[in-house]
Amino acid sequence: MTNVSIPGSPDSNTELAFPFPSLGGEDLQAYNTLVSTLYRCLHDNTGFQPFFDAFKHHFKALQGGILGLSSNPQRMVYGWTFGYPEGFEEWYINSDLPERDEALTRYRQLPPRQFDSFLRGDTSRTILDILGPESRAWAEQVGMGDSAGMLVTQENGNSVVFMANRHKEFGPYTDNELLQMNLLAPHIENAVALHLKLYETRSDNENLATALNHVKKPLIVFNALGNVAQANDAAHALMENSGSMSINDSGRLQSTDRQMTRKLQDAITTCTVLSHKGILSSQTVFTSRGQEPIAVCLTPLIADSAENNGVLAELFSFDPSLEPDQERLQALFHCTPTEAAVAALLAQGLSASDVAERKQISIHTARQHIKSLLAKNGYRKQTELVSMLVRALA
């Protein structure tokens, strides 16, 4: 028996006892299948989904994924996930939960290539005994019984974490299962590193720049890591004139306002995740500072090859003091004059509560107008409606 101490973990004084790495029989066959499936993901067009499917089946995992995280604050900036209900990733990215997520914090503190779990095979307690109130509420809702994960890489304060939650009906992850995960760990690290390199190198930025500059309206394309692959001349000119946004040395779109930068990055990450799922759902972020306010409409880009997925940003300057063309709105969005007035406010970045306050109506009435606009125009989400309103009025 070889004792493996994990410094930096929340229970760093506790030694984890793992047997000498060796597998036989069905476990060895399953391990070989997992490894081959993992590396095959580098050649397929489905990201890491085939590996997730195999991992989920073998380890009876409920949900999880590979998540890229920023630090200070801890935020999800890209990722591939499995097992979560529709809309969860979008909610998670745009919430404050990643900053207080005990699992992410725990796995970031581990040495690279070392899996750990919350319960470590202890059947006398549950994961609910360990989690904080917010995480516990989610764990109770989905029936989570344990969570295992590893730090894949860490560089310049940013981290990549692999995590896999498990349903309580299967009990905690056993020592033998953690052993198998630790044998997979270096392969996961290699595959992720290679996959990220493919994302960085397969975009032909020179040809992309030429194509974007043929379009006169301001456009920015982000790769699947949320970094700017290319911005055309019109986008650079608009950002310079506005003074409210720029592209930093790390290739990230940023605002002069820290909170606005966070909103931009969350929206870009949301669209990146949606691109992996093949969902064309737009997001719109309004900058509120600078000489010329800008609306940023973000749309997932879905390519034949997953490594070429990304996000397209259309930048629109607008003047909130100008009255929108009400007749144009009524004609384009098949709405009443009252609904057109609500639509005009949505196109300026106002929320339902803002609309209610501005129009001196109840929040219920404001929401009813918005629901009517959605139904009449075939949109499921308010974010999609707002994006189309901004494009129509630009």
Automatic annotation (TrEMBL):
<dbReference type="InterPro" id="IPR016032">
    <property type="entry name" value="Sig_transdc_resp-reg_C-effctor"/>
</dbReference>
<dbReference type="InterPro" id="IPR000792">
    <property type="entry name" value="Tscrpt_reg_LuxR_C"/>
</dbReference>
<dbReference type="GO" id="GO:0006355">
    <property type="term" value="P:regulation of DNA-templated transcription"/>
</dbReference>
<dbReference type="InterPro" id="IPR036388">
    <property type="entry name" value="WH-like_DNA-bd_sf"/>
</dbReference>
<dbReference type="Pfam" id="PF00196">
    <property type="entry name" value="GerE"/>
</dbReference>
<dbReference type="GO" id="GO:0003677">
    <property type="term" value="F:DNA binding"/>
</dbReference>
<protein>
    <submittedName>
        <fullName>Helix-turn-helix transcriptional regulator</fullName>
    </submittedName>
</protein>
<feature type="domain" description="HTH luxR-type">
    <location>
        <begin position="332"/>
        <end position="389"/>
    </location>
</feature>
